[in-house]
Amino acid sequence: MAQLWGGRFTKETDKLVYNFNASISFDQKFCRQDIEGSMAHVKMLAKQGILTEEEKEQILSGLEGILKDVEAGTLAITDEYEDIHSFVEANLIDRIGEAGKKLHTGRSRNDQVALDMKLYTRYEVQEIDHLLKELLEVLLKIMEENLDTYMPGFTHLQKAQPITLAHHMGAYFEMFKRDRQRLEDIYKRMNYCPLGSGALAGTTYPLDRDYTAQLLAFEAPTLNSMDSVADRDYLIELLSAMSTIMMHLSRFCEEIIIWNSNEYRFVEIDDAYSTGSSIMPQKKNPDIAELIRGKTGRVYGALVSLLTTMKGIPLAYNKDMQEDKELTFDAIDTVKGCIALFTGMIKTIKFHRDIMQNSAMKGFTNATDAADYLVNHGVPFRDAHGIIGKLVLYCIEKDKAIDELTLDELKAVSPVFEQDIYKAISLETCVNKRTTIGAPGPDAMKEVIRIQRAYLSAEKPLQ
Which of 57, 145, 194, 402 is the most interior residue, by most CB within 10 Å? Predict the structure, then answer.
């Protein structure tokens, strides 16, 4: 097929070169965005008297027909075309004739692809934000239902102090909440329209860029035509934000994998989100959690690849920048799939509350509170620390928890212990007396849940 830019050339492009240069195999993904951008451009051209009203209506009707046929599957996007822009324009000319040749008036493929990518990315940011909100709703429900589900909190993967499942889920709520805030920030910063920037230096046609931006729901037109066609910062920011989302999902998945192990048995993953072994009938593997953890590296790779691609590119547009699309498309699809699957998995997961509580009791998570008990009875902290250390050693030898020891056993280590030690180091006391905001105590957690519920109720979709 003759290229739309072929007038300068006397010789056809080598087939291998053509295939290497072409982007139709992946940029067809934003066919809708390309047509929506073209329709806005045509309306602006007619408003400015650059096209007649009749030409405008012909072109709009042709573009609407192309989009309808593509989405109905009656018009195929094939590698006969170099890119999605060529596909749309060539089909438009075939359908409406001479008027179709005026579609490209006052624009370049450089500002056209910049627009298409922004429109596509803006929509996907909204989609990711929506998926994260659904995940937050699930996490908040788990929090509300598990204010008194005691479990060990960990540092260095060792049992540290008792917390609740609500408190643990609340930590991930904060992470994904920050992820949404990052997406909102990216959305606001990227929401400026590059169309009208031309190849790099604008155009001599009297375009109304404010009107085009308004039609496409942008905040305003971009203010530098060179930057407009060379900017991929918003994609790098999005890939960075998505990498952080995947990091959060991966950390959560790692904990679920650990909790699902025979040694912990804190959770049971629903059959729909796990698989068995081909030879070991007892196995129930956390495959979805493992795959999400694995796919994190894939999204990281996209970020590093685009950063590397962009690092040596002079102004303005260069063909290297075509590499942004496959990387970003794949990363977006990966992140959306991972969030959706994770949400389904955590929504259907079963928590073994009794096992969690027993693990907290057997793990000496109340040792710090036992030391505080001694301090509150006049023992210097350093001495109290040593006494509890000896007590833990004794418990390990006897295979007992601290609160399973008799008062005589406790007094043998320190005569300061009295009957009230048992209440002081119960899991309920250890958790409940931590009342500052952000702590696992029930009153503090209820306030946090109230704040988070108000946040989710007040949140509006990105627009």
Answer: 194
